[in-house]
Structures are given as C-alpha cells and as structure tokens.
Amino acid sequence: MFPELAPYRGRTTRLHPRPGRPGRHDSHVGGPTPWPGGEPWPVCHETHQHEAEGYVPDEIRSARAAGAQPQSRPWPGAGSPGEDGPVPFVGLVQFFLRDVPGLAAGPDGADLVQLISSTS
C-alpha cells in the first residue's frame, strides 16, 4: 500500500486487552508488576508539580486489596499527593516471551519485557 515504508517494516503484535484481573505472571496492560525483592522499585527524582505527584504507595495497595482503583488517578485532588521527594514509577505493560510470537529473549535469556513510566 505504501512502498516507501517497506524499509521500516518489522514484526508487530496486535494487542487485544480485555478487562480482567491479570496475575503477576501473566502478560497484561496495567495490573500487578512483579519486581525482584532485592531491588528497590524505580522512582523519579525529577521535580514535579504538586498535582502531578501521584499517590502514596499505601493508597494504591489499599485500593488494590479492595479490588478497586484509586479514584481518578492521576488527576489533581483525587487522593493524597506523594510526599516531597522521589515519585514511584507506574507499571504500564508487561509481556512474557511465550505470549508474543517472534519476541527475542533478552539479556541472559530474560523472558519478560516490562514498561514502566513516571506519572509526570
């Protein structure tokens, strides 16, 4: 259809996210993100506007335990703002090698891709 784009082609995977409760060991968009116990969770050390700081981790844990989402995250005034200092990153997606045809293993045979981001 667009021959001039042919040099840029590559393998793609079409996602079909559905509402649900993915586990830590499932590929998913949103949901729980496993992290090695000995490593600190990544945080953003940049300065943030007060209304964009996000939520303190206890609010997120409490909401998840109740099977809910923190209210209107990440909009201003929807919860307690993060304390001054580093703001925790948020897990966006994770894909396991077994669920994405053609995905190559990572360093040392890693079979998991995670995308995390700052809320600002």
TrEMBL record:
UniProt region (Disordered), positions on chain: 1-44, 64-85
Biased composition (Basic residues): 11-22
Gene source species: Streptomyces filipinensis
Protein name: Uncharacterized protein
